[in-house]
Design goal:
Belongs to the 'GDSL' lipolytic enzyme family. Keywords: Glycoprotein, Hydrolase, Signal. GO terms for molecular function: hydrolase activity, acting on ester bonds. InterPro entries: GDSL (IPR001087), SGNH_hydro_sf (IPR036514), SGNH_plant_lipase-like (IPR035669). The protein has a domain of 273 residues: Rossmann fold, CATH 3.40.50. The longest helix is centred in the last third of the chain and has 24 residues. The strands form two sheets. It has a six-stranded parallel β-sheet, sandwiched between helices. Strands 7-8 form a two-stranded antiparallel ribbon. Helix 2 crosses helix 12. It is globular. The protein is an alpha/beta fold. The protein is built from twelve helices and eight strands. The structure holds 2-acetamido-2-deoxy-beta-D-glucopyranose (4 copies).
Length: 391
């Protein structure tokens, strides 16, 4: 029950990108050479970015994503530990930069020459001991953002020997800090902390993300995208968990206004924190990925994006006997849940995670916004067509 409820509530925290001011950064140190081909991608975050790390942790239940129907639309049509039907955001960012998907750090394949994925599904932004001070339990993993950053530091120490050397190794790399923090909020809510106490976590989370980013910079990261929160009031499990009898609780697209405001506030604080990092590191390109706006844009123009309007708030994999196709006691992959026949027409996969199509739309929109600010000759072109989903 706790587990199901947690899943149900998880929606609360999916976060994405918002555009603030961008620091322009010339592509390379030397004017002469275009030099903006990224050699590697390093990714951090939670389930929107994990390509298999949690799968390699002793997390028990977590491995719902290690079983079908998770992965049904992955190229191999097999589960990989990704919490969706196909690819997650880190795969899609990598693909947009013409790089292979970054391998999970904890996986058995240690071929990291084009990058590493440090993201862990269910990861919190705050460290377990910090959460404990708020009497918030951790769930399936202790691999918080700063733990992920420390893995990066261990890794980087193994490939370069001093600051100059590391900077050189990383100057042609792109860093993506995906959604992180939603699990903190969800866990706090499950702990029945009142909304003020949940909101009190936000400045701490924003500060922690900024600290993590600064540590990446200290090791030589020079191009970083940090994703904000999705409009969590539009996510299926939250719509179910926080349902209201009052129509004024919903916006015209059927999303819960209060949860969206919560996410918007998180994003505002995150952007302020990033602004501080930019001020200290003017030579670094630190971009905010506005996942909130991106998701809303897609939702508000569903048909233009090839989605069935009816299904924008519904889970693809879930419980057809319930509204939103979602039952927190019968989650995707367990009991008698079903998978929709056209996942590419849905944004939401299992109530809490997006479909590959949803992630693809969000990533494309964000890169379309951010590409001019990467200032690279061969900057990623916005993908016109979504990556096709294997049938
Ligand atoms: C840093 O490491 C590189 C590569 O090992 C080496 O060539 C260089 O001399 C080192 N620089 C310093 C200041 O130690
Ligand atoms: C909504 O109204 C129904 C019927 O009056 C009631 O049973 C239910 O508890 C209400 N739900 C919420 C979330 O207030
Ligand atoms: C969308 O919802 C409407 C009203 O509930 C229904 O009549 C229609 O068949 C649905 N369309 C699809 C494609 O499911
Ligand atoms: C599927 O689950 C629902 C909800 O628990 C239940 O009402 C229904 O009887 C189940 N159907 C089958 C075939 O098990």
């Amino acid at each position: 029950m706790a587990m199901a409820t947690l899943r149900g509530d998880l929606i609360l925290t999916l976060v994405v990108l918002v555009v603030s001011t961008f620091v322009l950064h010339p592509c390379a140190a030397h004017q002469k050479q275009p030099g903006c081909t990224f050699e590697a991608i390093y990714t951090f975050g939670d389930s929107t970015s994990d390509t298999g790390n949690l799968y390699n942790e002793p997390a028990g239940f977590a491995n719902r994503a290690g079983r079908l129907p998770y992965g049904i639309n992955y190229p191999t049509k097999t589960p990989t530990g990704r919490w969706t039907n196909g690819l997650v955001m880190s795969d899609l960012f990598a693909s947009a930069f013409s790089l292979p998907s970054p391998k999970p750090y904890l996986g058995t394949d240690k071929d990291f020459k084009s990058g590493v994925n440090f993201a862990v599904a269910w990861a919190t932004a705050l460290d377990t001991p910090v959460l404990a001070k708020f009497n918030i339990p951790h769930w399936y993993t202790d691999s918080s953002l700063l733990v992920q950053v420390s893995w990066f530091e261990t890794y980087i120490a193994s490939i370069c020997s001093n600051k100059t050397d590391c900077k050189k190794k990383l100057e042609n790399s792109i860093f993506v800090v995906g959604d992180i923090g939603s699990i903190d909020y969800t866990s706090a809510k499950l702990r029945h902390l009142n909304s003020l106490r949940v909101a009190a976590l936000t400045p701490l989370i924003a500060k922690t993300i900024a600290q993590g980013v600064q540590r990446l910079i200290d090791h030589g990261a020079s191009r970083i995208i940090v994703s904000g929160s999705l409009p969590v009031g539009c996510l299926t499990s939250n719509l179910d968990f926080s349902r209201s009898n009052y129509s004024r609780a919903y916006d015209e697209f059927g999303c819960l206004k209060s949860l969206n405001s919560f996410a918007a506030n998180h994003n505002t604080q995150l952007q302020k924190a990033l602004e501080g990092v930019r001020a200290k590191n003017p030579e670094v390109t630190l971009l905010y990925g506005d996942a909130f706006k991106s998701y809303q844009e897609i939702l508000h123009n569903a048909e233009r994006y090839g989605l069935t309007k009816n299904n924008t708030l519904n889970a693809c994999c879930g419980a057809p006997w319930k509204e939103y196709n979602y039952d927190q006691f019968s989650l995707c992959g367990i009991v008698n849940t079903t998978v929709c026949s056209e996942p590419e027409k849905y944004l939401n996969w299992d109530g809490t995670s997006l479909t590959q199509n949803g992630y693809n739309r969000v990533v494309n929109w964000i890169l379309h916004q951010l590409t001019p600010f990467l200032k690279c000759n061969n900057a990623p072109k916005p993908i016109k067509k979504p990556i096709s989903i294997a049938n």
